[in-house]
Amino acid sequence: MKDEGSKVLSLGHDAEVQEDSLLHRNVLESMSEGVLTVAGGGRIGILNPAASRLLGLDGAEVRGRTLAEVLMDREDLEAFNDIMLAAVYDEAVGSRSTIRLRSGEGAERSVAVTTSYLVNRRDGEDRRIGLVAVLDDVTEVEALAEATAAQNAELRDAYREIEEKNSALDSALKKMTAVRVLAMLLVAVLFAGAAWYVWDEAGAAFTLGSAGPSAGAQDKAVTVTVAPRRLLSTVSFVGKLEPRREVPVTSQVSGKVARVFFEYGDRVEKGQPLVELEIAETDRRHFEAQTRYFDARDKLRELEDWENSPEIARARRALTLAGMEFEARRGKLAETALLLEQGVIPASEHKAAERQYEGQRLRYEAAQQDLEAARAKVDADAVRIARLRLENAERQMLRLEETQRGALVVAPVPGIVLEPGSKSGRRSGEDSEGRPVTEGRLVSQGGYLLSIADLGGLTVAGGIDEVDVVKVHAGQRVRIAGDAFPGLVFEGRIARVAPQSRSKGNARVPVFDVTAAIDRLTEEHLAQLRLGMSANVTIVVRDEPSALLVPLAAVQGGPGNYRVRLKDKDGGAPRTVRVKAGETTLYEVEIVGGLKAGDEVIVSGS
Questions:
Q1: Bridge partners, 239 (sequence order)
Q2: Residue 193 pLDDT > 70, yes or no?
Q3: Is 0.85 topped by the overall pTM?
Q4: Are 435 and 419 contacting, i.e. CB atoms less than 8 angstroms apart?
Q5: Which residues, in sequence order, are CB contacts of 134 under 8 Å at separation 6+?
Q6: Which residues pair with 458 in a beta bridge?
Q7: Environment class of residue 339 by beta-carbon count within 10 Å: exposed (0-12), middle (13-18) or buried (19+)?
């Protein structure tokens, strides 16, 4: 009975083991992650369907084979093989690495590989019995992350665009508000001026009508005390912001445009590449010039060290060998002569030795002549000619190298690349129509490519009529402002006044071109300015700190006979004096002669 009970328990235990094994197998086969195990000896143990699909391996074929045998010839699994080898030899386990694998369907997948040891606990010790690699397909996760990043970028761009529009609307609103305020101030000034004029005229008429020849009439007169005041006279015109100068960029070589590194309107720095030209013919000529240069260099070195040249060495070796053979023949001849004298050899053998000696002597002398001829090939003239050829080859090579460097056109100055058709683009020749620079376009040597606006300063050009232009000359101070850049007022100077008028539509009054210049600008200024913005230029034509000015109503008479009435300080009758008038403003006249500071000039009254 006891034996039967033991058998029943054993059968039950085996059934449980088989059930657990089946459960483990089902779990491995149903996992979406791939599992690969490597047992002792580096042999593959488990390769579940997911791992088989990701690695492109047949589990039935590779199970029991070594890992090196399976992966050795698989270049597409090189990254996976490196991870497994690192785990085996470098004990690099527990880390997670992402590699690219091509599945059996041909699609490339991103796979995360994690390695760890298989451990068997026995007698309280952990023993490593193998290695397990878990493969997780993260292609969809990466695609989702990329899509999320793209959506975030689109949201950022949309938010930035909204912010830029809000900023533009805010700027436009500020401009409209400024225009409204200026308009209201202008209207208020006009009304105030009109009211003053009406009041002044009415007061003057009333005073003149009520005044009589009485002694006290002078006390009722309206007077002005003459005192030195500042007289500021200006002339204004309107123009547009333009660069101080436009620098044309030309091609140093002929060729075809291979690459364009800019867009019109870009701001570039000095030395920044703009255009690259394709110069295949120049490259070929440069290669040939290099070959000629190296040949000439080697030839000169050979001539300068001619005594150690291969030709001299060959001639010297030939002479040495001929000399040795000649000495041998001479010794042989002496030997045969002695033997003939002793009767040991016949005379014919001695004759043969004489002929051999004579022949070798001639060959030795020829070798001497060959050595002398080889040395005579090179003299001072030959070396000088070789040096001249080297210098000529070097010049040709360097000239072609300079041409090659010219294939990369760089910005000569910092500034902005101007659109085609600017005034620098209006040149004579093939580019007078201002064609844009595009890839594939043929360019001749010296041909115009583009223009760069030098933003070291700006200019404003406009027109002034013949009445005011005589007051303007180069060097006068100007103030430049504009509605497009509120809050900024630049100090500048008049750079040029045209000596000849230009026609302006059907206007009868001649107009002269005048250019104002701003010599220096900061980076903050450049950030707020754009080429083509409208600008108002005010020219200070006169700034007199102590001029004597009187109201227009106080001056009587005409040119050459101007008069004013002065109040008598002692209470007597007013007196009339002749004065010399200077510049006239809207309300006052400058008196340059006939008055002095402190005089009381009668504006209205007796």
A1: 535
A2: no
A3: no
A4: no
A5: 33, 34, 35, 113, 114, 115, 116
A6: 243, 518
A7: middle
> 348-374: per-residue pLDDT in tens?
998 999 999 999 999 999 999 999 998
Q: Which residues contact 568 (CB under 8 A, 6 or more apart)?
A: 218, 574, 575
Give the separation between CA 294 and CA 328, rounded to whole angstroms: 45
CA 390, chain centre distance (Å): 39
The share of the chain scoring above pLDDT 90, in percent, equals 10
C-alpha to C-alpha distance for 316 and 524, rounded to whole angstroms: 81
Amino acid at 271: G
Residue identified by tokens 């779990």 is 27
Q: How far apart are the first and last CA of the chain?
A: 160
Q: Are 332 and 339 in contact (CB under 8 A)?
A: no
Radius of gyration of the chain (CA): 53
Q: Which two tokens stand for residue 572?
A: 């007597």
Q: DSSP labels for 375-402?
A: HHT--HHHHHHHHHHHHHHHHHHHHHHH
> What pLDDT, in 10s, does the model give residues 373-383?
988 888 888 88
Contact 115, 94 (CB under 8 A): yes
CB 45 within 8 A of CB 63: yes
Q: For residue 126, which phi and psi values (nearest 5 degrees)?
A: -95, 120
Q: Look up tokens 């490339």; give the residue.
A: 108
CB atoms within 10 A of CB 583: 16
Sign of CA dihedral 250, 251, 255, 256: negative
Confidence of residue 187 (pLDDT cuts 50, 70, 90): low
DSSP readout, 435-465? Answer: PPP-TT-EE-TT-EEEEEEEEEEEEEEEEEE
Q: How far apart are CA 487 and CA 95, in angstroms?
A: 62
DSSP letters spanning 225-253:
E--EEEEEEEEEEEEEEEEEEEEEEE-SS
